Amino acid sequence: MPAIRHDWTREEVLALLDLPFADLLARAHAVHRQHHDPNAVQVSTLLSIKTGGCPEDCAYCPQAQRYHTGVGATALLGLDEVLAKARQARAAGATRFCMGAAWRSPKDRDIPKVAALIGAVKALGMETCATLGMLSASQARALQQAGLDYYNHNLDTAPEYYAQVIHTREFRDRLDTLAHVREAGLKTCCGGIVGMGETRAQRAGLLQALATLPVHPDSVPINRLVRVAGTPLAQQDELDPFEFVRTVAAARVLMPASMVRLSAGRKQMSDELQALCFFAGANSIFHGEQLLTTDNPDSAHDRSLFERLGIHALPAAGGATSDPAAAGCGCHCSCAAA
Ligand code: SAM
Ligand code: DTB
Ligand code: SF4
Prior knowledge:
By secondary structure, the chain is of the alpha/beta class. It has helices at residues 10-18, 21-35, 79-91, 111-123, 137-146, 162-165, 171-183, 200-211, 241-254, 271-280, 299-309; strands at residues 40-44, 47-50, 96-101, 127-131, 150-152, 187-189, 192-194, 219-224, 259-262, 284-286, 312-314.
């Protein structure tokens, strides 16, 4: 098996994206088969523990306070509510529970509250994951000590396109948080969003930044922009679906052992497009009818798609969350018994 590389150049990544479609897919699928079961897809869920009211200006995000998207701000959910959701998820077969908060970064006074949530979920025997914005080194350590296993923090777009999309922080800030997360001994879940008006060369820039991190992320979420009314990107032209598949395929070639997650935007994708993405190397999805604030395909539809494609659900291993509660996912694995 070829060695896993961390020295991809921008030219090499762009050359991959520029390949004829069939050549790129053949290459990605071959890498996929070398490293993964091509008929297995990890199934994950999310809980928004603090929604809306975010001070950041990410042009894609319905949770930014400054845009009028109809998403109301809530306080951090309490322990009982989060535990009830985690128990529900566990009863349905979930082994990992991911908590998302609409924060630029947690305040130090939030950390004990989130640590309590993490500790309680961990005590249920579940793996834990969180996405809370930027973390200092000491915050990352405190979360790790509370029992956190994974941290999701996306680079989101190419370094040179970042300032077109977000003005309230810099690309460098994301790299710094990822370093704190790694140094604290947490596993990383890190990807980006495509379809925000970036060029193919800029998609190569995002992929190169991900594939040259000191450690490849355990999980690489590839989000397709969900165009939410009220955000600056609401009127963005839809990305050519083949460009989306190319991005997934290139991620698979560049980061062969990582779980590549088909994340936001699946509700707007045809079954055929999703099938092409699975062939190109995507092997993780979010399950459940809501992501953080936007819609996700309904469970029955996902069940039927898996059945039609002969895909079985994998219990979590390497992604942000898991909900083999794909329970009754129509697959042939043990999750059907959950
Ligand atoms: N506030 C934290 C942060 O930004 O790191 C954590 C939550 S934030 C909502 C998590 C990720 O959701 C973002 O990094 C972005 O990749 C994704 N996201 C948000 N809005 C999206 C949209 N409209 N379409 C696609 N992905 C989106
Ligand atoms: C990720 O990369 N995608 C998920 C998860 N990590 C936290 C979030 C997608 C959010 C899509 C917009 C929303 O539902 O608010
Ligand atoms: Fe806030 Fe995260 Fe949304 Fe940006 S992506 S506005 S940081 S919740």
